[in-house]
């Protein structure tokens, strides 16, 4: 264990500092496709009983009209975090009228691309902006790729933590805002170094339905007539199957400092890309994308973790980040665990907590010009496609090391962070979460990806049939304990309020949509 990690753990273990560490916050965004009772993509509109996807704080849609997104508030406790997510699911299932939520990150059998419905957010300018952005994604990446689902884990520390971790050698007079941003960016660098471990431990998408690829070439193997897979894959969702895009391929924002990262994304949302210029923005009087730039908006940049800042009303997220610094991080690489009703459990969220604490406290050298950032990306891609391969080796700072050996070293260090969290909270759940991951390293058959393949083989079912059965089981779980009483009334009130807010936006947001888009872009660039 590094001296710096030891020192920081000892510092935070002091009674006066444990309370600061205890004030971490967590939130979850869980995506899931709505499917009909036969497991086909739901072609119905977002149910009105759930409220307006544009304005509801907890229930919205992502790319497709059928790709529902359930969002918790922030919680200090993992029990309350997963409890809220469970409650949102209970309410949603009460309004789905026989439809199901797909229990896998990789989609159900999809209709032809042209028939996949894009999310609709109403006729207000901001609603149309969201819809047209998604039209642009369809042209740039294809609709099927946008139907992949995952779990995003939002994480922040108390702002009181950063002064405690101040080290000799920091720039003189550094502001609290800049120190906080620098520490979060350091966390992100370490996350990129070590996130291959998360894919090994929690990847749960080693297989997919044949029609997902819609005839595109691939190097997957045939498990049965309707199922493709890779025998040692952990997460095809996070592999290079998705988002084959030359424009983004050249966009590798630097995580050495926030200003460089922001500058690269500013450039991407402001620089035209020839292939997108050929598409244009308006065809036959209809908007098909917001602009012809490398990225239409900053959210189009796909990454396994993002620095984030809550934006003010009408403010671009990137501008908020540039002006007020990093407030939290969003972990975006977690697959839905198909064996769990809400796709994640407290063991996983506790381990993520300890992992992110380790990424924060461990020394985080800058990425130099020697390809260290590329090595980290290659390790990640190796694990998502071959992670359970016996004897697999990765590249650690230019030297080969076995995955099992490196995972064991990392888990030793993460265990020290977990032990501190257990002392902070007076429990043993964090240490238990690390022990559960050690077992997966010793026995790869315990990983979710291995369990998925074993279940497919043992059942003799196709990917589509097995995941439909799993989705039905989860539906029964939630429908056996429906929302009622005050809880149901609260969710119904939120739904009605969101519908009223959308109606009001549509009443007051009038005027030329092109001018609205131009003003939105100008708001980013500060013109």
UniProtKB/TrEMBL annotation:
It catalyses: L-cysteine + L-glutamate + ATP = gamma-L-glutamyl-L-cysteine + ADP + phosphate + H(+). It holds the Pfam family Glu_cys_ligase. InterPro entries: Gln_synth/guanido_kin_cat_dom (IPR014746), Glu_cys_ligase (IPR007370), Glut_cys_ligase (IPR006334). Signal peptide: none annotated. Keywords: ATP-binding, Glutathione biosynthesis, Ligase, Nucleotide-binding. Residues 10-371 form the Glutamate--cysteine ligase domain. One of its GO terms (molecular function) is glutamate-cysteine ligase activity. One of its GO terms (cellular component) is cytosol. GO terms for biological process: glutathione biosynthetic process. Belongs to the glutamate--cysteine ligase type 1 family. Type 1 subfamily. This is Glutamate--cysteine ligase. The lineage of its organism: Bacteria, Pseudomonadati, Pseudomonadota, Betaproteobacteria, Burkholderiales.
